[in-house]
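Section 3.1: Structural characterization of target chains.
Under the original work plan, the team committed to producing a structural model for every single-chain target entering the pipeline before any wet-lab resources were allocated. The record below documents one such target. The sequence was received from the expression subgroup and is listed exactly as submitted; it comprises 355 residues.
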Amino acid sequence: MKKFAFFVFLLVLSCAVQEQREVKDWRYYYDLGMSSYVAKNYSDAIANFYKAVQLSPKEPKVWNALGLAYMEAKEFQKAESAFQKALEVDPSYTEAKMNLGILYYNTKDYQRAKSTLLEALKDEAFSQKHMAYYYLAKAYKELGERDMYLNSLEKATAYNPLFLEAQMELAQEYEKEGNYLKARDVYNTLLNNNVDNPIVLLGLARVNFELGNYDASKNIIKTIIERKDTDSLVKNQAYELLNKVLIKEQEKYIQSSTIQSSPQEKPKDEQKVKVTEENPTASKVFSIQVGSFSSYVKAEAYKKRIETYLKDVRVVEQSGIYKVLYGRFSTREEAEKEQKNILKNFNILGFIVEQ
């Protein structure tokens, strides 16, 4: 009797060990698959996820992972089948439902994407609502439902303020609408949540420019240009924006000077324009204005200070304002190149003027 009991004990123990080995096996392949998926080796990921579902076909997260790998490999029908299998095993597995909606969006079946994602969002316990709302917004956009597009995009950012992709898209949509105050709020929200990168700063500089906050825009641009993590594309865009800011400041100054001038006497810069028009053979000269002062003494002092590293600096008086100009360039392109150079090497902001 004791021998029989011992035999039964060994049999039960053997079954338990076998069961533990099988559980370990599917998780082993699942972990291998996830490692390959993160490394973007989707062929290897699919192979390991497939082995895992063979060992544990009742585990919905393995079917879901297999669907994700198939989707990345553009095997859309297989991906759809895997997501549906995950939902057959567990109808409450909302992550698979969301991924199915994303799959429908990627295959341009926007109506099914919309209905599937709305269904996923009914689950109050779902922890990835920000992602579901983001793809729902994209589906609404493709369906031409702009109000619902913006509404869903706003919800995506509300559920996760650190969701950079959605926040940037929302800010850019506000900019397209001319709603620069809302766009500025989005960029500031990202910065306040420590999402501090040159692209966010460039967006903030851009909306400040549109709002007429030129000093704020210039200060942000300066930060962008000085940062070591700013790539060449963003830096070039920053320089282009800086040029727009400086031109606007010049236009504002000229307009202010014209208003203050007496009606009997035309501003001197208007007289210069007239002289140029009367002499069409005169060649254009571009210079960089690097300062403006209310007195000649201050302008001359600044001129002498920067002459230690810049040549051909002069003071020109216009409408009672003493401007410090640098260089004489035959084309605007040459002037713009030097404008970037002095900002980079000497931290001098200037804008281009034509004489």
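Residues 4-10, 19-23, 262-281 have pLDDT under 50 and may be disordered.
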